[in-house]
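Q: Could you fold this chain for me?
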Amino acid sequence: MIAARMQMRVVDCCVRICYHGRPLQYSGHPRHKKQHKATMSRSTPAQTASSQTDARLVHIVDDDELVRGALSGLLRSIGLDVRAYPSTEAFLAADKPSIPSCLVLDVRLRGQSGLALQQTLSEEGRLHMPIIFMTGYGDIAMSVQAMKAGAMDFLAKPFRDQDMIDAVIAALERDARRLESDRSLHTMRTAWDSLTPREREVLQHVATGLLNKQIAANMGIAEITAKIHRGQAMRKMNARSVAELMRKMEALGIVQTPR
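A: Sure. Below is the predicted structure, expressed as structure tokens.
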């Protein structure tokens, strides 16, 4: 029954992906609708220039060729890049660009199972992109195990096309936020590393609430020297206020703000 359903989906994908005879529409957040319209519209020169920034990638791992083909066609129809793999080994061996991505993973696979892959990635600290599990044999215990291990969603076959679309869009948005956070943290770390030892010492005192005069006394330097070091360090950290500096130092783990 599942194979027949997937075969029908493949045929539909070759012509036009539809749901109940109508073109697929988003049922989720209005922001998803805007994203869909923007993706499907004709690209302008500005859009072409930023295509790399706007790229979204979905990895699909399923040992059923019909399922891979149907899902690939479905997700490409809404403007997403898709890479499909017949096994977890093929997925692990593939290059993965640093763009918002998610993994649509079948639970039961020949060789390493989907749940085993999730566990391996988690233990090795490589579980970054959100995972959407799918299975034709799912039960409550299996879904609970997957969700506790960090899965984004768990869909039982046969699932509605719209359910898969909504789950994928939500997963990609979550990964986009993670990547933005990682980039921001990297920028802050680079700025901190650019500080001289004296500038770092001054900022440590600033973080405790000391004034320039007090900082100078603690460090055995002139007040004007402390002021210069403070100004240079604040510029390097791109911090316009002490409060902003504190947030950045806290994010880097340099200081801890009392709760």
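A (continued): The beta strands are 18-19, 22-23, 57-61, 81-85, 101-106, 131-135, 153-156.
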